[in-house]
Design a protein that fits this description.
Layout: H1 3-15, H2 29-57, E1 61-66, E2 72-80, H3 106-109, E3 116-120, E4 126-127, E5 135-146, E6 154-158, H4 162-182, H5 191-207, H6 214-229, H7 235-248, H8 257-276, H9 281-292, H10 294-297, H11 300-312, H12 325-350, H13 354-357, H14 360-373, H15 379-391, H16 395-407, H17 411-422, H18 428-444, H19 450-460
Antiparallel strand pairs: 1-2, 2-5, 3-4, 3-5, 5-6
Helix pairs in contact: 1-2, 12-14, 12-15, 14-16, 15-16, 15-17, 16-18, 17-18, 18-19
């Protein structure tokens, strides 16, 4: 897949959690993706700094863990075995760390689990072992955190207390299962239960408490991918983390990477077989294509009748067109136009100077396509052409913008052309070109509002219809 296709898929997956997310138009998906990415980077950066500051304030060591794409979505907090004796009795603040006091824990004094030796310089920075004055320290892992939680770091693995992360993973699910199956209460049938659940969800959501949040599931999935793909991770440490994940996750099918890989292979095989069947994927694509053709063959009123019929039949009736060469060609042209409209809308939204900060080749291709085949383009595209015209100083781009506004058979496009003609800040040359296009549009009988038609007729001396 291309980068744009990958981003579209991710944006659609994020929109599944949003009310009316399925109704988001395709040309808005890039913005959805960018917005979510910014939110996640902000949350990740916030949690990174929060965890680092509180770890170092308690005399602990913070280490981010990079994913294969170079981003760090997890971090490990360590303690040095050499620091245990001299810090015994030290006051400990567990805020945001959510693990018990390590300085007075007898388990650490007699630790038999995984350790890692690292070398530090006089400023406490990790260096190579052959660095001058470098001192070795034996690090013991305390906890592993996910950084994608909206409010605070999510503890995924507690190396001293497996039940710590387990309780957080199962807390909300236990309450829900207890009320629904054991006590047989419904939130809608019990006002106290409804209010209690509302308050619980409000507090955990607002404060970002990592209790069975959806972000925990994502963090675990990302962590398992990290264990599978990161070759730089110490093999023994990887096994240690994987072993503890086995004990934390509630769903047994989530535990074994080999099981997941086997399921994925079987699903892929089933998909390949489905694609080969004449009544499988080809038939599904044909049905979807014929449904898509309805917009090309019928008016909005007729399509509304079809929608009502589908609703009243509870989805049993779905009107589909019979494929003809003419409809197929129109569908192909419509899809191409959708693509080029999206390019223009994105550039108009993001660009400050299209010939400098945009893909000029893609922009020229899209402008040329609309100028030649853009009769069915929408008002949003006309607005984008008008904006690109005002932003650019490139003569070829400006000519194509005006040609596109003329080609679009929509009254809004002619209104934007008229606005360009009336703008005293626009050079006379461009105003004259716009006037010629408006005159031709009036002669051709293109869609123009009555008010704009009168203005054009008075401007050009052409009588209106």
């Amino acid at each position: 897949m291309s980068d744009d296709e990958s981003k579209d898929i991710q944006a659609k997956l994020w929109l599944t959690d949003k009310t009316f997310g399925a109704m988001m138009p395709d040309d808005e998906l890039n913005r959805v993706y960018d917005t979510e990415i910014v939110k996640k980077r902000d949350s990740r950066g916030h949690n990174w700094e929060l965890l680092r500051q509180y770890s170092e304030a308690q005399g602990l060591y913070f280490e981010p863990m990079e994913m294969p794409d170079g981003t760090a979505r997890h971090a490990t907090v360590w303690i040095a075995a050499e620091d245990l004796a001299e810090n015994k009795g030290r006051k400990y603040d567990r805020r945001f760390l959510n693990i018990k006091d390590p300085w007075n824990d007898p388990k650490l004094a007699n630790w038999k689990g995984y350790t890692q030796v690292k070398w530090f310089d006089d400023d406490g920075r990790v260096v190579e072992s052959n660095t001058v004055n470098a001192k070795p320290k034996t690090l013991i892992p305390l906890a592993l955190y996910g950084l994608d939680n909206p409010k605070i770091p999510t503890i995924l693995v507690d190396f001293r207390d497996t039940r710590n992360a387990k309780r957080r993973e199962m807390s909300k699910r236990v309450l829900t299962d207890l009320s629904n199956t054991v006590i047989s209460l419904s939130p809608f049938g019990s006002i106290p239960l409804f209010l209690g659940k509302f308050v619980y969800d409000l507090v955990t959501g607002r404060r970002g408490i990592d209790m069975n949040q959806a972000s925990r599931i994502r963090s675990y999935a990302q962590l398992k991918m990290l264990l599978s793909l990161d070759a730089t991770l110490d093999a023994h440490f990887r096994d240690e983390i994987a072993d503890r994940l086995e004990k934390v996750l509630l769903n047994p099918l989530e535990n074994d990477l080999a099981v997941e890989a086997d399921i994925a292979r079987k699903q892929y095989g089933n998909l390949v077989e489905y694609a080969k069947k004449s009544d499988g994927l080809p038939a599904l694509i044909d049905r979807d294509r014929r449904t898509e053709m309805v917009k090309l063959a019928h008016s909005k009123k007729t399509r509304a009748v079809f929608t009502a019929a589908r609703f009243l039949s509870f989805g049993l009736y779905e009107h589909r067109e019979t494929t003809t060469p003419e409809l197929f060609a129109r569908l192909d042209m419509r899809r191409q136009l959708n693509y080029h409209e999206r390019v223009l809308n994105e550039i108009a939204f993001r660009s400050a100077k299209p010939e400098i900060d945009s893909d000029i080749s893609a922009l020229r291709r899209s402008l040329q396509f609309v100028a030649e085949h853009g009769e069915a383009a929408n008002e949003k595209t006309a607005r984008s052409l008008s904006k690109i015209f005002s932003l650019t100083d490139d003569e070829d781009l400006r000519l194509k913008c005006l040609a596109g506004l003329f080609r679009i058979d929509d009254s809004a496009a002619k209104n934007y052309l008229l606005a360009i003609y009336k703008d005293p800040n626009v050079a006379e040359r461009w105003r004259n070109i716009g006037a010629n296009y408006l005159k031709q549009a009036l002669i051709d009988g293109r869609k123009i509002s009555a008010r704009d038609a009168a203005a054009i007729a008075g401007m050009t001396g052409v009588a209106g219809n």
